[in-house]
Amino acid sequence: MTESGPAPAMDGSIESRCPGAHASMPMDIDHAAALTRLTRYFETLTRQSVGNLGEFYAPNVYLKTPLHEVRSAAEVATLLTHLFERVDVPRIEFTATLLQHNQALLVWNLHFHTKRWLDDEQVIHGASHLRLAVDGRVAYQRDYWDATEDIYVKLPIFGRLLRWLRHRLFR
């Protein structure tokens, strides 16, 4: 214990990578209201509103997805900017939200059209585990979704190879 509170963890845990994401933090804010603001932000996300990300994410946020791992709100903003460059009309739909203290689980669908390869609307089904900081911003986010099923298998050449491998290995 230090004079300013618990000693920081140095064991590689989320607490050592993401200060402020402690499960035992005091409830200084209305986490339900913060979560509602966050989901509304993502439901109405545009290329221009990516610049407002700092209102919802702590500067030193830790985010891990099946494709990326970043450690700052600026890097999260860069990922979102790249999303708008690679796909047309991305739209996030939340189908369930669960909140317990400062932790949340968001179940979502990301709808989009690719700029190349596929004409039909694509959907990635996923979930995000969040830990909110004392100020209500996201301090930790871990996204769970199937990159193989939702992206790779749909690509023209790579998808054929994956389907062939799946058939050979699991028939």
Give descriptors for this structure.
globular, alpha+beta, six-stranded mixed sheet, single chain, disordered N terminus, 171 residues
Word description of this protein:
This protein is globular. It is an alpha+beta fold and 171 residues long. It is 29% helix and 32% strand. The N terminus is likely disordered. The N and C termini lie far apart (56 Å). Strands 2-1-6-5-4-3 form a six-stranded mixed beta sheet, covered by helices on one side.
End-to-end Cα distance: 56 Å
Low-pLDDT windows of residues:
1-27
General shape: globular
Helix percentage range: 25-40%
β-sheet strand percentage: 25-35%
Q: Largest sheet at a glance?
A: 6 strands, mixed
Tell how many strands the DSSP assignment holds.
Answer: 6
Mean pLDDT over the full residue set: 81
Q: Structural class, from secondary structure content?
A: alpha+beta
Strand arrangement within the widest β-sheet reads 2-1-6-5-4-3
Radius of gyration: 18 Å
Element-by-element helix/strand order? HHEEHEEEEHH
Describe the oligomeric state of these chains in a short phrase. Answer: single chain
Number of helices: 5
